[in-house]
Amino acid sequence: MIEYLKNDEINKDEWDACVAASHNGKPYGYSWFLDCMAPGWQALVDDDYDAVFPLPGFKRFGINYVATPIFLQQLGAFSPDKPSPDMMNEFLEYLPGIYRLVDLCVGQKVHHESFSVTEKVNFELDLSKPYEKIHDGFTGHCRRNIESSARKKPNLTRSVTPEELAELFMANKGKEIKGIKKRDYQRIISLMKYCLASEKGKIIGARSGRKELVYATFLVTIKGNITMLMVVNTPYSRERRIGYYVVNEIIKEYASTHTLLDFAGSSIPSVAAFMESFGSIRIPFYRIYRNRLFW
């Protein structure tokens, strides 16, 4: 039987055990990720944590709603058994009526008359093969950009603080994102600090000759999955194709391991083309939406 649990009622150890055993091993569903990015999150739990469904619930102007936080691509059902459309529909039927608005991205396709569903796309690359085999799947354009960047010998560094990465994001990509708030940056900094301290993540940066940070990416690393959660380019790094070089170095490091490189997707055609140029495949996920506001 499905239960609705408030945050302080959730057994985090049992929750994380369920997510870790899930077929869709992504970091977004773990309690530590949700604690940082959706403080106070709630949940639907089936049969003593045999299946779980996180609810990033918020309240504004007295209205309770569920929404996908920034820097968190997708949630949905997590279970050792592959969640079926029936399981998804059952979870959605148990959504408490207090949530007047639901705008959530999930990893499983939903067929439910109460929700409108929009398909989105993620990009994933299997790193189980040797590097040479993975390299064969790169496009010619990708290989040329890697070689061009390598000739310029990018100055890569792991000595980048979460605050420094967040500042670089705010000064560049953050300007293009509407609605991003100071608390969102505070939350992603908190997540980065937790992941670095617990060896669940790393930051890779590149500096100019003047030691100025010109590129950075935050990777969340859990067993079997590397997620490029946050990537920041600058005009300097784009000109020198540093992003191609860094992704190639990540692939070299993790090739021949049972690891999936998750690019975290993008709806921007040029960014999507970059992700796909490494031989990654398109994996759909879905935005489900329901509005029961009074107006």
Please give a quick description of this structure.
By secondary structure, the protein is of the alpha+beta class. The protein has 10 helices and 13 strands.
Can you characterise this structure?
The structure is a single chain. The chain contains 10 helices and 13 strands. The mean pLDDT is 92. It is globular. α2 (31-37) packs antiparallel against α7 (182-197) and α5 crosses α9. The strands form 2 sheets. Strands 4-5-6-13-7-12-11-10-9-8 form a 10-stranded mixed sheet, sandwiched between helices. The protein is an alpha+beta fold and 295 residues long.
By DSSP, the count of extended strands is 13
Record the strand order, biggest sheet. Answer: 4-5-6-13-7-12-11-10-9-8
Largest sheet report = 10 strands, mixed
Please state the overall shape, judged from the principal axes of the Cα atoms: globular
Pick out the low-confidence regions.
none
- How far apart, in Å, are the first and last alpha carbons? 34 Å
Count of helical segments? Answer: 10
Strand content: 25-35%
> What pattern of helices and strands is seen along the backbone?
EHHEEEEHEEHHEHHEEEHHEHE
Radius of gyration: 20 Å
Structural class: alpha+beta
**What integer is the average pLDDT?**
92
Helical fraction equals 25-40%
How is the secondary structure organized here?
Elements: E1 2-5, H1 12-21, H2 31-37, E2 42-46, E3 51-55, E4 57-60, E5 63-67, H3 85-93, E6 99-106, E7 116-126, H4 131-136, H5 140-151, E8 155-157, H6 162-171, H7 182-197, E9 201-207, E10 213-222, E11 225-232, H8 235-239, H9 242-254, E12 260-262, H10 269-276, E13 281-291
